[in-house]
Design brief:
Layout lengths: L1 H5 L3 H22 L4 H28 L12 H27 L8
Helix pairs in contact: 2-3, 2-4
Length: 110
């Protein structure tokens, strides 16, 4: 892990926000239905993810390190546990959007 090797917090927050964008676009383009609702959902997640990434990355550049990771960034297993928790939280947060973006029926029809 780069975060452990370089003892940096830049990767952790940046990867968190970029994962939302990557997953939303991946779900949209994998399904290939491109309903208006799905495009809007993916666009809004992307805009939110970019805003979150910009905020978190500018904050870490300004303060240099995140005290939440003191005692964690040096230990690969602790940091891996944090990243696992982060992945689970992303999965839970995106679950309703995953269902919407994976749907093969038009939610506007009917």
């Amino acid at each position: 892990m780069l975060a452990t090797n370089f003892k940096t917090d830049k990767m952790t927050d940046l990867s968190y926000s970029l994962t939302f964008i990557i997953l939303a676009l991946l779900l949209l383009f994998t399904n290939q239905t491109f309903f208006t609702t799905q495009i809007i959902i993916a666009l809004l997640i992307t805009i939110w993810g970019i805003r979150l990434a910009a905020y978190l990355f500018s904050r870490i550049l300004k303060i240099g390190k995140d005290s939440r990771f003191d005692g964690i960034r040096e230990d690969f297993l602790k940091l891996a546990g944090f990243w696992t928790l982060q992945a689970v939280s992303i999965w839970i947060i995106l679950l309703p959007f995953t269902v919407a973006l994976s749907s093969e029926t038009n939610p506007n029809a009917g």
